[in-house]
Amino acid sequence: MSLLNMAPLLAALRKSRVLRVGLATVVGILWLNLILDWRDRVAADQASYRTAVHKYQRLQAEANQKEWPARAEQAEHALTQAEDRLWQGESLGLAQANFQDWLNRELVRLKAIRPTVKLAVAEVDTKNGEMPGDIRPLRGEISFDTNPAIMTPLLADMVVNKQAIQVESLNIKPGTARTEMIVSGYALVRALPTKGKP
Fold this sequence. Notes:
Mean pLDDT: 84
Largest sheet: 5 strands, mixed
């Protein structure tokens, strides 16, 4: 706008009090809006600064703690011990074979009469989340002629065995004089790397 065109507007402002109050109100609202926006930006910047300072202080505190290498070593040792309690195999079939072989050898060693060992497909418990990809459940069904002289050493051997074995059920049928057990364990399945690949 040129100054010539502003002359009638200035003349109207001088004559009309309502126009002056309206213009002052608009300028006041704009000024108040700018002040409130500036205050919000300052508050957001302060909150961001506090968050960054808190993260930095926490990182410094973690870096100053000297126990982390010892804790990591303890965790690695505990993991190794836990993995040693699992049945091992390059595949699930080999781990199942190791499990079944141990059960057969125990029954033969204890001189069980008419022993049978069958492996059943173990279901993965998905209620509490998925299992790690290299851990699989194992399940076996054992039956033999009932003999207390075999039962006690067999259960004792399962308890002290390096690989964990749990007895899920034990059923002694009085009419047939047969003992049936369902036992389970877990296998750690890790394939060996093929030649030429790391």
